[in-house]
Each structure stands twice: as structure tokens, then as C-alpha cells.
Amino acid sequence: MTVTALIPLFLGNLRGWEWIIIFAAILLLFGGKKIPELMRGLGKGIRSFKEGMKEVQNEINDTDPSDKDKPGKN
Fold it and tell me: Structurally, how many domains does the chain consist of?
């Protein structure tokens, strides 16, 4: 079994107090000033990903059905 297959098993068995310990450890490792910066970067990454997904969806929706009749198009 690979490590990536074990990660969901590990995270699924955590209870409330175990999450508190994990968050406390993260707070100790990164400090109170770095966590907002990390979350801001994570939010920008998620926003960028969603914008990219919207662009792809728009490109898919904007295709012209008459393009299939033109030579070289499938």
C-alpha cells in the first residue's frame, strides 16, 4: 500500500481533540504572524484555480457547432 493511499485513512480517524493538537503544533511551528500569510496565499491559489476552471468551461461552452462542418475540424 502506498503512502498516498494511507493518508485518507489516517486523516479520517482523527477526533476533535486530535485536531486541536495538530492546530496547536502548526501554530507553534509557524507562529501567529505567518499563518495569516499562509492562508492568504492558499486563498489566492484557490481563486486562481477557480478562475482557470471558469475559463476552460467558457471555452468549452463557446465552441461553435458549425466548426464540425469545416475541413480539418473533428
Answer: 1
